[in-house]
Right-handed parallel beta-helix repeat-containing protein (Hoeflea poritis), 552 residues
Amino acid sequence: MRVKRAKPSNIARRCAKLRAGDTLVLEEGLYRHPLVLNGVRGTANHPIIIRAEEGAVFTSGMSLEKYGRIANLTAMRRQAAGYYPSVGQTADEAALAFIHCQHIVLRGLSFLRCWPTAVYLDECQHVTLDRLSFREGTIAIGANGLTTRDITVSNCDWKQDVSADNDMWNRIPWRLIHGSKKNTNGIAVDPKGDYRAWDGDFFRAWDVAGNIIIRNNRICDAFNGIHFFNRADRLAPGIDAIGLEFNNGRRASANVLIEGNSFTRIRDNVIEPEDYAWNWVIRHNTFADCYRPFSFELQRAGWFYVYGNYGWVNNPPSMLPEPGERTKCSHFKLGGDQENEGGIHVFFNSWYYRKGKGIFPKGALGKLRHHNNAIGFGDPANARMFGKTGKLHNVSTTTASAAEFSDNLETHFTREWSEEDYGIIFDGDIVEDLDFPQALRDRGFALGDRSRGCSPEFAHPEAARPDLSISEGSPAHGSSIAMTIILPDGVWFEIPEGLNVGAFQKSGAYEAIDDNFGFLPDATGVPITQQVREEQDDEEEDAGQKPSLLLF
């Protein structure tokens, strides 16, 4: 195990000779040339560590204006060829790329204006990215390949738009970054005026196997947060997805933990699994003035656990209205017909909307289990839990009957909640919407008996630094209902009643909940981690419980 030192003039030669257990220290300097490490491998006990001294910076040297012209032309050419006008397909053009590498630790590296990508992982396993700093760029971290797994991203920070006045949030229309002719009334890419260079993510993955941990990172003034593409899990005709075991027929986007991160002014989607995804735990994150925290447009998916999160919108994007503006924030973006294979559990979250389109503006989400969430609105009379349902509190029950309310997933959330339809349950929530719950029930939304329409009485929701805590006098204090949570391997656990509704809990309350979640082994049975959760007791085994998950 050796400690080596490198500088910009010799880093490629130093990296070519790295062996298991080596540490490479990057000296102060500007690392301007792209660096590719191919087949560099440490071991579980002796990883290869690459760390940086202060002043060691990877950079392309290109400004936003210079790369912006390249990105706009790339998007324009893709548009002419019939593709979506974006630059994501160029993500492998990275400042630092790893191909077929294993057991690598990157620590303390800085990336400035690395267009389009700072760090790129291709068919890699057991890579830790810790305390990395990213400024500007299209994609901070890209990961690709069906064998890419066991990736940890922790304690990193990314600020994509470094303008003093937060131009991406307040001045640049959404369509100039990500618009297409289809979603902006036929407006084409402008090779001089668009901002396609910003059409990226903090973490973007293509068809990765999974076992991804994204923890304690700070992402602000960026277009997207965490974005997984999965093109590998489309079923052959005649295969019934509902009958598959968790590990049968799934090759990508399984086992993802997103926790303890802060997201501020994310202009599009914060967390977006595309099409196919399983066993995602999204907990203890903060979403501050984000356009859309969750984009769940899923085809085959299940076993999502979204809990212990705080989110608010007090300062929505402020640019003037124009085609493709996308300024009315909402919490969940959903697709159409999403049956899903496992439950989508959303519980113990606190949301506050001073203004915006609300929580579930439209669409459907199969097997949604929505329990014990605290939701406040700055304007309760115009709050919208389920989209354009009308101002029902001002009209009679007869006028607001379900029969007069047409089913249209383009304007409101589905009312088909039965097990024969989408299998949706809402209960135990406190929502500051004057129509919640009774007027919405009258329109066909089968809200549970323990649903309550009142303010959760957050401490300071509209402050410069919002505080969504509650006091003992809040109706949310100690009033949660009991829940049963079913895990992907069939194991279940109970959360008793009597906790707070919303994310704010007494110290230690989450420990017993957090410990139940983990990653399942892959289809071959190979362990993902070496730390195995304790066996369930004999009573649970007698009840037919399966072996438990492996801890994160």
Observations:
- Helices lie at 11-16, 64-80, 167-170, 175-178, 438-442, 511-514, 538-542.
